Amino acid sequence: MKKIYLSSPTMHGEEQKYIKEAFDTNWIAPLGKNVDEFERQMAEFVGTKYAAALTSGTAALHLATKLAFKELYGDNKGAQTVGEMLREQGKELPVVLCSDMTFAATVNPVAYEGGKHVFIESERTTWNMNPEALEEAFKQYPQAKIVLVANLYGTPSQLEEIQKIAKAHNAILIEDAAESLGASVRMSDGTKRNTGTFGKYNAISFNGNKIITTSGGGMLLSDDADAVLKARFWSTQARDDAAWYEHSEVGYNYRMSNIIAGVGLGQLPYIEEHRKKKEWIYNYYKEAFKNLPVEMNPYKEGDTPNFWLSCLTINKDAMKIATPEKLAKLLADKNIDSRPIWKPMHLQPLYKKAPFVSLGDKVGDDVFARGICLPSDIKNTEEDMQLIVDTIKNAF
Ligand SMILES: *Cc1c(COP(=O)(O)O)cnc(C)c1O
Description:
Helix content is about 40%, strand content about 15%. It is α/β, with parallel strands linked by helices. Helix 5 links the parallel strand 2 (about 95-100) and strand 3. Helix 11 (about 325-335) packs across helix 13 (about 380-395). It is globular and about 70 Å long. The mean pLDDT is about 95. Pyridoxal-5'-phosphate (PLP) binds near residues 103, 179 and 207. Pyridoxal-5'-phosphate binds near residues 102 and 205.
């Protein structure tokens, strides 16, 4: 039986041209022409001044968090992390106001650096961070100076509002656009602005399941030249300027290799084509399910998601007829991939002690209970889509 995937890599052939060039010039080791060019083209595509190509989106988020901590608390020379330094000084640890409905990689870097998470409830319009709950969080945690927002499933958060709120509280905004490369927001003045440009520091991912992929990789995007230079320094083992290996800071081996950057250069021209196919998939589901007691994952009118994953929630009163588990089982029987909704951070065993700022709606708990991620692979044919849709219709 043919397997239908949630979201698998789609290669186009040009990737091999860049890889071959890297081989031919023996530029296999980290750095080289492909890395420089991939950074330049990606920064231009998204709309930031600078970029640092890294081994993963998680690495980009880690360095983004480190940059924000450094800006607020200074160099942690001597101590390995800012958290350790503040603890030694008997000071309060940095509080970071984080998206709740996201993948753990968004927020784990706060733990790497010894910060404290406060999770912010989602809203119904986009399933992302609720701007009103963020306002409330600043009342409860006026010491918070960093906001970490993720765009779930390729749907932009209410980024213009969130950016405004962060600014009003003198907080640094970090945007996790790992899932939303190619998505854009309609601003209140009518212009469009890409996700991955709202944060002072922004992260994207080229993991195997993302809208374009380098097999694994990520990028830090920013308009701050010094910050990007610092990220490149940290990502190549933080070697001070000396003839021998001299270190005054903790470094990482996070730099993207020249081969991998070649795959990225081959993929980059296809972002919008992939986005359009993902949109076709979303709209196919939406049309097919219009008479079922389900809703597709929502987005704000005027915004342009990249539709990375299509998801549905089963209406409350229809949960007696079908549950996400039942749909997953019926799909699996036909060799079709699906995935539960990302379990919210405030429900994770790892983060259950962290505070959760809620306005009482508990959107994450609700969507997690009633939702499922549907196959959103851009290689899906019309027949594949029909099979998925028929399988789900049969469940009701
Ligand atoms: C994939 C993903 C990441 C991590 O990216 P990697 O390249 O896999 O390290 C971070 N945040 C979100 C929301 C993601 O979906």
